[in-house]
Specification:
The protein is mainly beta and 134 residues long. The protein has a single domain, classed as OB fold (Dihydrolipoamide Acetyltransferase, E2P). The chain has 1 helix and 6 strands. A 5-stranded mixed beta barrel has the order 1-3-4-6-5. The longest helix has 10 residues.
Length: 134
């Protein structure tokens, strides 16, 4: 039987990326992502559910995330699920499911310094701004 481990997520960061480096110098960033789901119950009541996920990004992409993303940044993540197990200092067994990112696409304005003549990062997008090719 074939198997597939692939996820695509679109959501917003709940906090700024946590960028660190391994002893060998490889960049790794932990992102906390909130993904919303809106639905209507059988009785017609509108509901919203939020799923909070940890996304791990490696290498140059991790450095870019640390430089350009901030709390609230909208992103799309393509990657795979990974389970990690460990034991705490007091002997309790723990595990976590994380998303290991293979690609992170920035979907909104970044926290990069403003460019003279460019719209302020706090300005909302006006219709048609999304088609600008840069």
């Amino acid at each position: 039987m074939a198997s597939l481990n692939r996820v695509f997520l679109i959501g917003n960061l709940t906090r700024p990326p946590e960028l660190r480096y391994t002893p060998s110098g490889t960049a790794v960033a932990d992102l906390r992502l909130a993904v919303n789901r809106h639905y209507t119950t059988q009785s017609g009541e509108k509901r919203a559910d939020t799923c909070f996920l940890t996304v791990v990004v490696w290498g140059k992409q991790a450095e870019s995330c640390g430089e350009y993303l901030d709390k609230g940044s909208p992103i799309m993540v393509e990657g795979r699920l990974q389970t990690r197990d460990w034991e705490t200092k007091d002997g309790q067994k723990r595990n976590v499911v994380e998303v290991v990112a293979e690609r992170v696409q920035f979907m909104g304005r970044s926290k990069a310094p403003a460019v003279a003549g460019a719209p302020d990062a706090a300005e909302p997008l006006s219709e048609g701004d999304e088609d600008v090719p840069f």
